[in-house]
User: Fold these one by one.
Assistant:
Number 1:
Amino acid sequence: MADFKEFGDKACNFAKNVADKANDAVEIQKIKAKIRETRHDIDDIYNSIGRSIYNRYKEDVVVDAEFMYACNNIDEKYDEIAELNDKIDIIKGCMRCSNCQSPVSPGDAYCSKCGAPV
Ligand SMILES: [Zn+2]
């Protein structure tokens, strides 16, 4: 009888441990999700610091030399995006003014924004 009770207690402990482990796993997943969220918040803050340095660079405010390379690199990336958008415009059959980059319609003789010949 004692053996059976002992077995029963062990089975109970085992069942409790499985339930506890499941609860622990759920709790750990919640905490990990909160850690990911907090890391994302930190990344947003880093991003904001970077943007404020880049904005200073664009406003010709002196930035540390160590940031100049990164700011130049960002400018190059914006240029790449502009070139890629131009490719999309060409595929779509859109044209842009060579002077001010405003969209112009095929057949326009002059840019409606700056007046440059198309
Ligand atoms: Zn124009």
Number 2:
Amino acid sequence: MIASTTLSNEKITGFAVWHLALPTVSRREHGIGPVEGTVEIVILELTSESGAKGYGEASPWSVFTGSVEACYAALDRYIRPHVVGSRICDVAAIMADARRAIVHCTEAKAALESALLDLAGRLAGVPVWALLGGKCRDTIALSCSLANPDFAADLALVERLRDDAVGIVKLKAGFRDHGFDLMRLETLRRDHPDLDIRVDFNQGLGAETAINRVRDIAALEPTFIEQPVAAHLYGLMADIRSQITVPLLADESVFGPEDMMRAVHEGICDGVSIKVMKAGGMRRAMTVAGMAEAVGLSAYGGDMFESGLAHLAGVHMIAATPAVTLGCEFYQARYYLREDILADPFPVVDGNVVVPDGPGLGIEPDLEKVRKYSVRHSLEQAA
Ligand SMILES: [Mg+2]
């Protein structure tokens, strides 16, 4: 009685935003650009009238989704007025207001929805996955990406992954010559025949060479090949798909439900990488997954360069989405950041992410670490 009354009526009174720069362990290269030095994210903290807190993360990548500056401004300036004073449980209405308040900035909207559902879950005493419709799995197979230009370093990482029972890797390709990609894939195939190996070009191939290069990679039979060409080249994606037997996944070509509809209509892929940051929240990500499922396409749980807090939003989304069957890539908190910001370690056991069952997202950020890595912040409270 008390809890439900609180959740039904309680309002949001505090809205704090931090811009963080998190140091990383190595340089990584991708078809669309490198990541080196730090990963920059935005953290949102919502506070309720009774003092409860909810957290969300925006994880932009300037060459893929957008900039950290745009995310920070989207939350701090354009979305804040639609949130402070609103009822916590009015998630759908608040998210609709946020979408009307500012275009794009899907990562900022993902942070908002995460913080709302984390706060609602903590007040109701239930996990976020329960608010999304319930849990269809307790664990999610973890995939770790290999994107170090120093392949020897990546091979050492693979040994560590094997020790940790991680059975899936995704080889990032298309940032150097074709021979480098073939050599790495052949080496992994030969030395680790039981690994589930996927290949992701991150749009790295030019239109004139893409089909031949993808055909050569497909001959080595990775589990799937992801986004070989630029996001907008739907026709070329469809052509490539028609010439290989390995499944072709769309990533950068499909952000939200609108893109998914076009991708299905034009037949550009056999599956899709579902990301909370691309879709603009967990619920829209679930819509994309449902659309893929309805036409027989597979779905993979992708991510951006994230801390464990954004990983948790993805975990709860996948926990509540039966259609996401190809595992997840929530590896940065454990294998790429020098230090994650969660108060407890992001849960990975025997190569699987374990779905938290505690209230809200299940793990809170460590605010000492948030302050430690803060570049700037805005802590305005409602009057
Ligand atoms: Mg990708």
Number 3:
Amino acid sequence: MENKILDYRQVLSKLRRIENISSNIKREESIGYTTYKLPILHFTSGTGKNHIVLSASQHGCEIITTNFLLTVMERIAEDSKQFSFLKSNEYTLHFLPMINPEGYLISTSAIREIIKKDLSNEEAQKVYSNYVDLYNKDDEDVKIKLNTKFKRHQQFFGHIDPYVILGSKFKYIQKSLIKMYKENGIPEGTLAIWHSNGNGVDLNQNMPYNPKIQAIKEGKTLYSLLRYNNIETTKPGPIGCPMKGKEFEYELENKALFDFFLKLKNNKNIELCAYMNYHSTGGIVYYKPYKDVNDVVTENKMKYMDLEEVYNKKVAEVYANKAKYNIVNSESSLNCFNDLLRMQIPGNLLIELSKVPGNPLSPYLDDNYDKIIDDNLNALSYTLQKIPEMNRIKKEYIKARKEKMHDEER
Ligand SMILES: [Zn+2]
């Protein structure tokens, strides 16, 4: 049996296969293009009023999320029982299988130097466990405050540099990587854990309220956390950097997402019910913050916020209970790009798939992989079935409250 890792080209060909299976999955125009002209692909299923968006690989190296979304698409294309309830005209599902295609390309190109396409799954399993051991040891070092620049998990990929990956078709991304490694002091062996895009910007950190922006302007140097604590986050690189220049700007991938959601929101015939943004490791579900804690709001507006948060929480609970994931209930300030989207989109969850840490390989350990895929297929199917009803209750509640407030005013 082949190993389950899909490189960038394999994802593209798998998507072509899926859209050819049946008309259940339709290719739409890409929602935008990256700096280096890779498309941000978009597919839909159904034509119903209730719209639900699913996205993967916002962090390039969190590639299991793309495997998961492709599996969902495949099941729907094959008329699997699990999703037969979708046949009604109630739903439109949107699939964005790689919202950071450059990051996905970089990470999988490096992985392919070790896990070749034709490497059997059996052989690949040995490589994964070896890697996960090293990764855990790096975390233990940090726990006992052994602050070393030497990282075993990076050593594992240490011989792979931007010169050997990507090839001529992607030479501009390669050039950008070579420049970053040269100028920004990025440790060797970090291509496989490339969270960012081809500009070295971490798309979930690429938002204007990120405190790192001030630090960058003041010329400070900050580092990433845990096993990545030898990587600077105040310069473009593999993880954590919010912007590429001296002034903040959104990366093209994020602009495309803003535009995409704005179009859905402005369409009166569309009921935007949920957005599941899949990430790779943690086995947890985030649904907060819903509104900027610094927002100045009137009391009435506050009531709506509560209501929206109840809905968000409800959707999170339905999903997490089924997947047996924990929910993060603690308050959190607005600090990620996804949090910005959540200010505008109801039912937005950030879902961390694998309970075993060790990006990008740990999710592919046999027991772990099957469980991740199965549990999340179940959780997604179950949540999708509940969403129209939850949304209906929410709307009735809002309507009743509006009328009540109107009466009180008179
Ligand atoms: Zn992530």
